[in-house]
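I am still learning, so can you show me any protein sequence you like together with the matching structure tokens, please?
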Amino acid sequence: MKSLRNLALLSVGVVTLLVNHVLADESNYDAIADSMVNESLSVQPGELVVITGNPSEIDLMAALQVAVSKAGGQPLITLNIPEANKRAVMEMPIEHMAQLPTQNLLVAKMTDVFINVGSVQDPDLFADVPEERLAAFRQSGLPLTHAFNNMRFRSASLGQTGGIPTAPYAISVGAEPGVLQEIFWEATAVAPSELIPTATKIVSLMTPDTEIRITSKAGTDLTLKVDQTPARINAGRTSDVRAPTGPTNVWLPAGEAYGCVYGASGTLVVPWTSFRGVPVENLKLTFKNGEMTKMSADSNQAMLEEYFAASSSKLKNASLIDFGLNPHSRSPEGSHYYSWEMGGMLTLLLGNNSWAGGDNDSDAALSLHMPGTSVSIGGKSVIKNGELSL
């Protein structure tokens, strides 16, 4: 959940699992659900557990309901219907969109655990929605996001970039569906013990005011500094997360060390990224004193310009850096499938970082995956040409 990890999912949801090297299909949904509930989240008797997903994930949601019940939890199923979401955003009077979604706030106040399972059936579903409508929706949910970030629930999501792989999503990033699904479930099965040692090393380097430098053959040369917020890891279990305030979040496939940053200066070049399912090629951003001052792209630049213009000015601030650690998550050859957890992947976030304990409270965020980069923290190499170097 991770362009703006929790603003993008106003239902806040989501779950991670520790599956012991099994591929997911209807025959093993029970095993996956059992692992999610008992290993990843340690659901306790009496806890209220909200399970959210798309209509295409009904069978998995049903297995999760059973697993939560067997653990003594109290499951509540909520269905997310993307096509209805779009119709509502397009057709409701814009003044109604300014109303605070209080029902989500009331549910969140009662909830101990959120589990989200979802997939992308139509990658560019929201690409043609007028920006002013999406901006009104984001802004109405901002007080809700602030409230969520001060609650002490546990959450996890199954599916990072693109969710659980589908054929339409795979095709949109130039990947063969079967190959992408196999990679996804293999990466999901990685044990925390494979991830924690490297994550701990990176977090230990991310002390306040330490300089981070990012370079790439594409032309990136960017420096920034670690802020005062303690860096965190995502190894797939909420018990491993050190979050002094707010919710405890994990995402699956797991494998990340991440922290808040400030003071970006220099140039960032992203050869390919996707914005609402639409490709943006050769994106170039210039930063000065932490803020983006210039943007150019070879395609669909106007969409990004409209997004920035309709959002809080804090969207221009580089606010978080994320290091991918999962050795089994990778981009299929010839594809543009990039995700946070991929081993050696560097992701930079602009805008809201409150879900990571930061103080950027923008109503929007933009995440940029950058394969093939080199990164050093305090002069020590962490990633070299897209490969972990610790």
In short: The chain has one domain: 26-388.
